[in-house]
Amino acid sequence: xxxxWTKHKQERLKDKLFIAMLILPAGFLLCFAIFIxxxxxxxxxxxxxxxxxxxxxxxxxxxxxxxxxxxGDFFTSLKVTLIYVFVVVVIEFVIGIILALLLNxxxxxxxxxxxxxxxxxxxxxxxxxxxWMWIFQADYGVLNYIFVKLGVLSENKKWVxxxxxxxxxxxxxxxxxxxPFMATMLLAGMQGIPxxxxxxxxxxxxxxxxxxxxxxxPFMKKVINTVTLVAxxxxxxxxxxxxxxxxxxxxxxxxxxxxLSYRTSFVELNLGKGAAIGVMWLMxxxxxxxxxxxxxxxxxxxxxx
Amino acid sequence: xxxKLISIVVIMIFVVSLIGCSEKEDQVEAIKTTDSKxxxxxxxxxxxxxxxESDEKIVxxxxxxxxxxxxxxxxxxxxxxxxxxxNPNVDIEYIGIPFGDIKQQTFVMAxxxxxxxxIQTHTAWFSTYATSDVAIALDDLLGADYVNDLIPxxxxxxxxxxxxxxxxxxxxxxxxxxxxxxxxxxGLNPEQGPKTxxxxxxxxxxxSELKTSNGDKIYGLGEVTDMVPINGMVALxxxxxxxxxxxDTDGKVNINTPEVVxxxxxxxxxxxxELTPTSAKLKDMRNLxxxxxxxxxxxxxxxxxxxRNLSGEGEAFDxxxxxxxxxxxxxxxxxSIGAAHGLVISKDCVNKDVAADFLKFVxxxxxxxxxxxxxxVLSGRQSLSVLDTMVDDDFSRVCVEQLTKYSHSLPANVExxxxxxxxxxxxxxxxxxxxxxxxxxxxGLQETLEDIFKEx
Lengths: 305, 456
Fold this sequence. Notes:
The structure holds two protein chains of two kinds.
Chain A: H1 2-44, E1 47-49, E2 57-59, H2 63-71, H3 73-103, H4 110-117, H5 119-122, H6 125-136, H7 142-150, H8 166-191, H9 195-203, H10 208-219, H11 221-236, H12 240-245, H13 257-266, H14 271-304
Antiparallel strand pairs in A: 1-2
Helix pairs in contact in A: 1-14, 2-14, 3-8, 3-11, 6-8, 8-11, 11-14, 13-14
Chain B: H1 2-33, H2 36-39, H3 45-56, E1 58-64, H4 70-86, E2 90-96, H5 102-111, E3 118-122, H6 123-130, H7 139-142, H8 144-149, H9 152-157, E4 159-160, E5 163-164, E6 167-173, E7 175-179, H10 180-185, H11 197-208, E8 219-222, H12 229-241, H13 258-272, H14 282-290, E9 294-299, H15 303-311, E10 321-324, E11 336-345, H16 352-362, H17 365-375, H18 382-385, H19 394-405, E12 407-408, H20 417-433, H21 438-452
Parallel strand pairs in B: 1-2, 1-3, 8-9, 11-12
Antiparallel strand pairs in B: 3-11, 4-5, 6-11, 7-9, 7-10
């Protein structure tokens, strides 16, 4: 009996060692690529650390944090970031699910359409930003040309240089880039719904709307939770789209936390303050992610009860 | 069991390849640093000799954006080949970094003690290098004769606390370009540019009445207002032209003055009457000018080559535009500023004497004439700027006259100047894109700049 128990214990230890071996390389890489930079950023945020005077670095406690908050730029950028994330993720989800529903139907050329839809997602974000910057160009951009020719606009619009339009222009470019990912993930989730369940609901007399809200959406809850969270994180840290299309302008109307942190660190060369903005930005993202997950898991357990 | 075995093999391969990569890097490092004798065991005699030769070589690492750009890469090759031919013991190693990234990348490199020996910079952000501990003083390295030969306004632009911290390499003044065809269509004399700002605005208004054959808008007079530091610096041309200044004689911020308010009124007028595209970058102006949709604007001397390329007409396009000194404004003379691509030697440079010698070579007659022929750049040295080989046509004559006689030096380099330029660019957007009055914008800018320079 004791011999059997010892053998069992040894096997469990071996399994644990094996698991550790599997995790070790990934953990090693994660440590270098993520944890060390984060820890270093947190460390720098407590110092008066400027690239102008590399040798002089003094501990200032929370001064960088107070300084960033006092400036007012932080809250303006936070507001821009939150508006951008909320609008993009909501629209992305709504259009994504409509697209997924359409692609889930049986029609001729479905496979080709599914591949074509993915194209914007394959294109790197920087290329997308450059592409849309030229499409939106006020004087020789193709969008104004088409709209004016069609009579939709009487004169050219300054899409990326008008303070009230610039953020929307970036949102459109971001949606174009990210929509395929959302639609594909939702489509995958949709295809995981048991057909027996859908057929049973139909036999019970459920209409399309009831099918969608009572069967499809509840079954896709976990997929929706994951993809929307990924979209929130992706957009919360979005940098290249803004930097290339608007540079944070006009008049800071598209200055997000990412742009503010970069500008503080690499234009003003104030690494300490830039790191403090980055840390606050990271904390916000963690809080939002935790709250979002909690909200979904609570609803899930309510549903199960 | 089989799965476990495969997983272990995959992990082993992964770990071994990681170790392999690091060993390879170590080997590369070792080749760079160790004595050739240590490496000689596995090599043939000829290889050993080559190794010895390369070990004796002084490597000058030169961070520049020009080497990666098609229009200038040729001259960089010529510089490298010529200098290495004259100095066989020196190896010029270019580090190509894009224009927009070079400052932050070189500062990050400097933070790790690995700053390139020589760094290309621009007047718009030179103050950031000058006020840092990255750029070293060059007066002693270059010698009094060289330093005193620099054009005074450019020398001032590259000086900090009385020390020369950079060399103006490829200077260019801002001059006025006008489109002769559009002048003619607007009933103006195509051979004569405006003499004053008032006349320039009137000409712009006349040109703005025109439309292209497709019915597209034509702008009369362009001013850049995109939110980047360089555009804030460019606006100084107008601030000075209107009789204003950034600082008073005591070094205090002096933006809230009637002269500067008048300058912002000028921008407001251009935007309200749609004489200029708003939030436009310099490249937008160049595009519009080259396709015949912009009547006039002010740009660097290097713009001639850009027009030739963008118009698709090559040198034939030169006949379609004219160039003149910046028109008179509040003062009884033309007022412009000079911008210059500069060169600095970094604190991490080991062979500072060699780097200084290279700077002298690059800014010397042979290389400057070659660069002038390739890209219309002028010389920052008084003795070279007036050479027949540098002033070889009417276009160059206007540019040299603007640079040497009518260019205002930039404000003294102080910490925060680049942010100040960015704030000026932002204020230009404020005046051209919103209903804010010039008085409001100027008052706000005064406050912001005082805040930036409060610790000076």
